Automatic annotation (TrEMBL):
SUPFAM superfamilies attached to this UniProt entry: ITPase-like
Recorded family membership: Belongs to the Maf family. YhdE subfamily.
Major localization class: cytoplasm
NCBIfam families the record matches: maf
Organism ancestry: Bacteria, Pseudomonadati, Pseudomonadota, Gammaproteobacteria, Lysobacterales
Species in which this protein is naturally found: Tahibacter harae
Cofactors that this protein relies on: a divalent metal cation
Protein role: Nucleoside triphosphate pyrophosphatase that hydrolyzes dTTP and UTP. May have a dual role in cell division arrest and in preventing the incorporation of modified nucleotides into cellular nucleic acids.
Superkingdom of origin: Bacteria
HAMAP family, sorted: Maf
Reaction catalysed by this enzyme: dTTP + H2O = dTMP + diphosphate + H(+); UTP + H2O = UMP + diphosphate + H(+)
Name assigned to this protein: dTTP/UTP pyrophosphatase
Residues the record marks as site: Important for substrate specificity: 10, 71, 153
Active site: 70 (proton acceptor)
Length: 189
């Protein structure tokens, strides 16, 4: 049985596109970067901790496999998590506009006797945005609950000049890499 250790509606939607049956687990994992921790290591650690926390919840289920994922926006070595409020969202977008940044996405599959991970790094280039455009986007409510204060699949798409990498990875679950992991575990044909 496959379990998704995430309450993210985007991850659920993306995993559903693979045509799999799965259950969703609610895990509470602190998303706090350690001092000096490289961004990619941080994202991988959080994804692994989510999968591990989920596995603890279903330890008694024979054949349980848990998928944990994390996605973060990185610019100049800074990891942009989810904005706490409108001011934080606007500040993130002000830094991202007119520049390229990296979106790091990591996926872990764990079971009682096995674990594997996959990675997807994408470069996203935002077009320049003036203060009024940023204010309109923040007022839409879309930046909340999203790493880097934007949703590539939403209104922000009008401001994305170029994407080099995985569209679904930027959304939060790189489907190509996830499908490969699931095949390795025999969960996807």
């Amino acid at each position: 049985m496959l379990y998704l250790a995430s309450q993210s509606p985007r991850r659920r939607q993306l995993l559903e596109q693979l045509g799999l049956n799965f259950a969703v687990l609610d895990v509470d994992v602190p998303e706090q970067r350690e001092p000096g921790e490289p961004a990619a290591d941080y994202v991988s650690r959080v994804a692994r901790e989510k999968a591990g926390a989920g596995l603890l919840q279903v330890a008694g289920v024979p054949g349980a496999v848990v998928l944990g994922a994390d996605t973060e926006v990185v610019l100049d070595g800074d990891v942009f998590g989810k904005p706490a409020d409108a001011a934080a969202a606007a500040a993130m977008l002000q830094r991202l506009q007119g520049r390229s940044h990296t979106v790091i996405s990591r996926v872990w599959l764990v079971s009682a006797g096995r674990e594997e991970q996959a990675q997807s790094d994408s470069d996203v280039h935002f077009a320049p945005m003036d203060e009024a455009a940023i204010a309109r986007y923040v007022a839409s409510g879309e930046p909340y609950g999203r790493a880097g204060a934007y949703a590539i699949q939403g209104l922000a798409a009008a401001h994305i000049r170029h994407l080099n990498g995985s569209y679904t990875g930027v959304m939060g679950l790189p489907l190509f890499e996830t499908a490969q992991l699931l095949r390795h575990f025999g969960l996807l044909a």
